[in-house]
Amino acid sequence: MSVTAAYGFTAAGVAAGLKSPAEDGTAKRDVALVVNTGPLKHAAAVLTTNRVSAAPVLWSRQVISDGRADAVVLNSGGANACTGAPGFADTHTTAEQVAEKLSSAGQDVSATDVLVCSTGLIGVRLDMPALLSGVESAVNTLGEDDDAGAAASEAILTTDTVTKTATASGSGFTIGGMAKGAGMLAPGMATMLSVITTDAVISAEALDAALREAVRVSFNRADSDGCMSTNDTVIAMASGAHPDADPAGVNLTEFQTALAEVCQTLAAALIADAEGAHHEIAIRTINAATEDEAETAGRAVARSNLFKTAIFGRDPNWGRILSAVGTTDVAFDPMTIDVAVNGVWICRAGGIGEDRSLVDLSDRLVEVVIDLKAGEAEATILTNDLTHDYVHENSAYSS
Amino acid sequence: MSVTAAYGFTAAGVAAGLKSPAEDGTAKRDVALVVNTGPLKHAAAVLTTNRVSAAPVLWSRQVISDGRADAVVLNSGGANACTGAPGFADTHTTAEQVAEKLSSAGQDVSATDVLVCSTGLIGVRLDMPALLSGVESAVNTLGEDDDAGAAASEAILTTDTVTKTATASGSGFTIGGMAKGAGMLAPGMATMLSVITTDAVISAEALDAALREAVRVSFNRADSDGCMSTNDTVIAMASGAHPDADPAGVNLTEFQTALAEVCQTLAAALIADAEGAHHEIAIRTINAATEDEAETAGRAVARSNLFKTAIFGRDPNWGRILSAVGTTDVAFDPMTIDVAVNGVWICRAGGIGEDRSLVDLSDRLVEVVIDLKAGEAEATILTNDLTHDYVHENSAYSS
After folding, report:
1. Is ipTM strictly over 0.85?
2. Within a 13 Å sphere around the CA of A329, how many CA atoms are in the beta-carbon half?
3. pLDDT, tens digit, 9 for 90 and up, residues B341-381
4. A199-208 tens-digit pLDDT
5. Which residues of B fall within a CB distance of 8 Å from A396?
6. Suppose A218 and one of A159, A267, A363, B21 were both cysteines; which one would form an S-S bond, judging by CB atoms 3.0 to 4.6 Å apart?
7. Rounded mean pLDDT of A318-347?
8. Distance (Å, rounded) from C-alpha A122 to C-alpha A48?
């Protein structure tokens, strides 16, 4: 199940030769296409806030501005970032190829309604003949079954070891999504991409609002190594094709909850597949003055290399947690803060708490709880440990 | 030459048993004392801005508030951070021991004029009998020669491999300084400590202003791994004892330049001795709108684990540099920015520049130049690469 779980979508994933073949010589899928067959063509996107934005991000920002998208084409094997005007022209050409081939196949699509995503190395041009040929193959193999969705979710992977998909459903709607990357970033800077489809009847404005809220509490709280990509993109497309859909529109509260659940499942899957990581760490900050402050405190800890290496070494080093929180301006008193690691409150009132030898860090999953005692808000940041494999992965391969 | 280079200071460094002995069984120096014998007792200090401040930082903040300090006592073998009220009492007791023993030796000193610094593990109490006995030994071995200064600079080391000292002089003044730590942080979180002495005739207010400016352009631009300590302290003390001192006061411009030079030499020495580092990296941001923005851009790059692992892998990965700058809000145009690594402009106008294979990263020293083309200000941030040795150092030892 993936982007084809919802009614009104077709998908494909093909091998175009943008990625190197597998060790056994098999070509890897590297071009994905997701098409909204309607009746609605509503869409929303959340794009990287990195000011060095890749060409496909610049393009997609324009496409999405009217709340409509008919299709999204995604390629792995190259990020098309820092490639200047020629790179932007490549993205434009790709969208035109999608529109032309879909139109030839009977679906009238304008290039300006085609979103584009790319992932791979920064600063290299894409192999355009290969990509354009891949787009044609993708159009020719579009399907609406599980296999088609699975092929698309595979074609967007870079150094990911598994595909990441999620679905949810409610009264008169289904949501299906796929994602790739993140976690420990791949050589040359990998990208977090996600495409989510739904057959709900929902306006572009409501879809945009729901997507932003869902991303805020999911992907934006997954912080594997603090490095923001030039290509990060999350796209949601609504077809309104569910047979039981309420023509007046989906229940927005129910839809919001289901969409956040799909995004959180995908975000957790990214962290779980982070390259080089030995631990997935959930940093839950409780009793914060505001949700933003809870997020700020957790993110400071998630970005501390000393904390991350300590977890790799199975060392419940609460001093490194406190010193990271201490660099922020969130409301807390250093003399009352408590910290637990995997259920053991090893820091009490800013000092030595329960016996640290009681903490078991042998599992992959680690939960840190930081009690700020400053309010009632909370937030959880997901991150990874900093390991030899991370250093190896990001240094040993030239990009 | 060290803190005893300037007239009017005595120093000592003794082994009190706070640190484990060397492999050959030799006791390591771990208590240092620097005494200002006057006639002036002016002092200034820059303390960590981490809100989780160690007990000695809380104490020294009070001591320095009146611009006077007679002595500073420093111990390695324990940071006395996150130790609550008992830890603060330990610091108080240490200052009282210094005052009492100095007074017994004929120098009338109040405990409230004794600065205290500690460095080592967070969250453990100090061995007070050993420390107090060490203070007594230090008072008994105070000297004003080079050996005494060298002993003090050795006693503050933790996992440093060499002592760090610097001197400068000008019309009617000498400046001497010592420092420890920083760079890749040691197990349990090391501390950056520095004590600088001068025989200049200078008011406490002018000394404070000069020290803050010197720290701003030196220690505050050394960012080895982005982790701020709970104990960071830089202290300056002026005795006014130089035989050629102008009683009306030192030339402040000349003094400021010399003090900044001493601080920059010490900061560079910290980065050069950073544990686990294979490269020292100077990130020079030029043509920024303001000096602050130059610093912000450089620091964003210095804190990118992807950039730091790339340099370890001798990969001049300019995409990772651009994506780090892109996360900031400093003035620059992604379509005009240039980046050079070791003199080769591999990124021109935000895209591919000269051949990256021309970049030689075999030397320990690396210079990155980022040309923002937004103004005329510049700043240099010093940092290190992220290596297997860093991960090992900070994960393999439980703290």
Report:
1. no
2. 0
3. 999 999 999 998 999 999 999 999 999 999 999 999 999 99
4. 999 999 999 9
5. 313
6. A267
7. 93
8. 15
> Does the annotation count A26 as an active-site position?
no
Residues whose CB is less than 8 angstroms from the CB of residue B193 and which lie 6 or more positions away in sequence, other chains included: B74, B117, B119, B156, B179, B180, B181, B231, B232, B233, B234
Beta carbons within 8 Å of B348's beta carbon, 6+ residues apart: B338, B354
Instruction: Tell me which CATH code domain A280-395 carries.
Output: 3.10.20.340
Residues from chain B contacting residue A324 (CB–CB below 8 Å)? 227
The reply to whether B28 sits in an annotated binding site is no
Amino acid at A194: S
The pLDDT score that the predictor gives to residue A327 is: 85
CB contact under 8 Å between B82 and A351, yes or no, is: yes
- Hey, is A66 helix, strand or coil? helix
Structural domain boundaries in chain A: 9-269, 280-395
Bridge partners of residue A168, in order along the sequence: A175
Q: How confident is the model at residue A259 (pLDDT cuts 50, 70, 90)?
A: very high
User: Is A187's pLDDT higher than 50?
Assistant: no
- Name the pLDDT band for A182 (thresholds 50, 70, 90): low
* Alpha-carbon gap, residue B1 to A326, rounded angstroms: 36
The amino acid sitting at A390 is Y
In the prediction, which pLDDT does B191 show? 61
- Token pair listed for A181: 């990357």
Over residues B138-153, the pLDDT tens digits come to: 999 999 999 999 999 9
Can you tell me the distance from the alpha carbon of A360 to that of A344, in angstroms, rounded to the nearest whole number?
A: 9
CATH superfamily of B9-270: L-amino peptidase D-ALA esterase/amidase (3.60.70.12)
Contacts of A159 in chain B (CB under 8 A): none
**Annotated binding residue at A191?**
yes
| A9-269, CATH topology level | L-amino peptidase D-ALA esterase/amidase (3.60.70)
B89 touches chain A (CB under 8 A): no
| 3-state class (DSSP) for residue A379 | strand
- State the distance between the two ends of chain A, measured CA to CA, in whole angstroms: 34
Q: At residue B13, what is the residue type?
A: G
Close Cβ partners of A79 (under 8 Å, ≥ 6 residues apart): A54, A118, A119, A120, A121, A122, A188, A189, A191, A230, A231
**Is A324's Cβ below 8 Å from some Cβ in B?**
yes
Instruction: Write out residues in chain B with pLDDT < 70, as ranges.
Output: 1, 182-191, 397-399
Give the residue among A178, A181, A286, A166 at the shortest CA–CA distance from A224: A181
